[in-house]
Amino acid sequence: MGANSSLLSPDSSDGSNHPSKLKLGDIPESCVALVLSYLDPPEICKLARLNRAFRAASSADFIWDAKLPSNYHHLVDDYLIKNPSKLGKNEIYARLSRPVPFDSGNKEFWLDKRTGGLCLSISSKALAITGIDDRRYWNYIPTDESRFHTIAYLQQIWWLEVEGDMEFQFPAGTYSLLFKLRLGRFTKKPGRRVATHGGHESVHGWDIKPVQFQLTTPDGQQAISKRFLENTGNWEYHHVGDFVVDDPNTPTKIKFSLTQIDCTHTKGGLSIDSVLICPSDLVKSFRAIL
């Protein structure tokens, strides 16, 4: 006990430095990296700003290899660069955490910064909308409220039919698909929100019959739900259903739709922003930001 306690003593007979006087930057880089590997990416990035030792340790490949999706090589090869070995794993994670556009900019995917879960967004322009080419029914409206800077706005129609499909190589897991919709039309300008022609007064028909959401996959997964659209003036994520990906090395095909094809009444005043696909455990975080 005496020998061990002497190491912790603040005094030294020979004047040399003691372990008790070691500074944060004196901790071996390998030890720091091991500790960082147990933290979430945002926490790692915060600690990397402490000093050079922590910054160097935070770049260790083994830390980020565990944070990246199992099929990240596919994402990098197809959407970023052809030779991922040129990038460190931390740089790959950073790049994949930013929106990566594809399909002429009408679709984006990104990794959730905290969990590494893969999220994907599909613009209204990538959807098949019945009557979209007839300006009596639909208009594309530019706005900075959308990540794609454009929404599809329904003036009035009898037959509502919006369909889409997606084929993507998702990491294994359970995913949710949601439509981002709003009743009413607004555009946001810097510092203020301005109602435009066709605002709340054009919203009608959604309280008579519910809309139907549907999701199907070739392997038999299916979800159907019906609900009334009620909340005017705010963007909402409407949960369509969930699907499970077992094989991260095979593209998953999904078909989805939003319909209200009862022709006994017209409906109008609906804004369609996008379709979101994300890990099911992240759905609450998206709803919270609206």
Automatic annotation (TrEMBL):
Residues 1-16 have a biased composition (Low complexity). PROSITE patterns: FBOX. Residues 21-67 form the F-box domain. Transmembrane segments: none annotated. It holds the Pfam family PP2. Residues 1-20 are annotated as: Disordered. PANTHER family: F-BOX PROTEIN PP2-A13, F-BOX PROTEIN PP2-A15. This is F-box domain-containing protein. The lineage of its organism: Eukaryota, Viridiplantae, Streptophyta, Embryophyta, Tracheophyta.
